[in-house]
Amino acid sequence: MNPIHLFNRRTLGLLALSLAAFSPNLHAQDKPPLKIVVGFPPGGSADILARMVADALREDFGTIVVDNKPGAGGRIALNAVKAAKPDGQTVIVLPSGPMVLFPHVYKKLDYDAVKDFTPVSQIARFQFGVVSGPASNAKNVADMVAKAKSDPGNASYGTPGAGTLPHFMGVLMEQSAGISLNHVPFQGGAPANNALLGGHIGYKFDVVSETAEMHRAGKVRIIAVTGSQRDPQVPEVPTLKESGINMDATAWFAMYGPAGMKGDALTRLEKSMMKIARDPVMKDKMLKLGYEPIGSNSADLAAAQKADLNRWEKPIKATGVQLD
């Protein structure tokens, strides 16, 4: 054998071994990118948080794609994740509504909120704002109640979709304040914002971060928040209880994967999400958006989901709302 050829082959072999030794992630780079599915359009609160999470996860996962699949209050996105392989390459970031409200309002829900998904991590808790737009011009909750009572049924409010948490915030406020409101569902928070600004609806119930900037700019007015404490984004805005409405409601964002995700696929995501919640930069970003960082493990998210499924059952059934 030609010694030059032998030398070249040996050299190439040693080079390959060296690359493998110094590039432990070489094979990992051959994997498809991590896909984070979002059930709402770009620009809404779920999309903003999902992109924040994606940026933070790139250190551990490399390439990440945020895939917006809006419609049906998040159900289109959930069914896409339900059908995905449980290999840890496809997850969803979503608000708690589809996992704790939809099972009570849809008789024929096309997924099982418990059996069809793997809990990964509860990302953050948050509250909602009651927002008055140019069409209503209500300056506070008392103003809103008075206007609704003087013109029953003509006060309209928009939400990111039928059966979502903001939808039931409106229903609960109707019951608590003794008023009648017309619900107008949209495919996400951003379209609802446009309708509010355009004077097509009078009010909006949604995450405070959706309208905090418009509130500060004087384009709309957040007249109350739904939690037990004032929101740091708009500290001048009272809670509903401070405004005379006996109502206190919050929600959360979480990450789920398809059913059957376990072992390294689950553990890797779970640990990364817990690390993100402890990161000072990420925590600061979340707090500025009005989110309380959680970063739970899989078991704690499963427990939180079970508790909220039980908590919302009676109030929703009392409304008589059915969406199919």
From TrEMBL:
InterPro entries: BUG, Bug_dom1. Residues 1-28 form the signal peptide. CDD domains: PBP2_Bug_NagM. Keywords: Signal. The keyword Signal applies. It holds the Pfam family TctC. Belongs to the UPF0065 (bug) family. This is ABC transporter substrate-binding protein. It comes from Limnohabitans parvus II-B4.
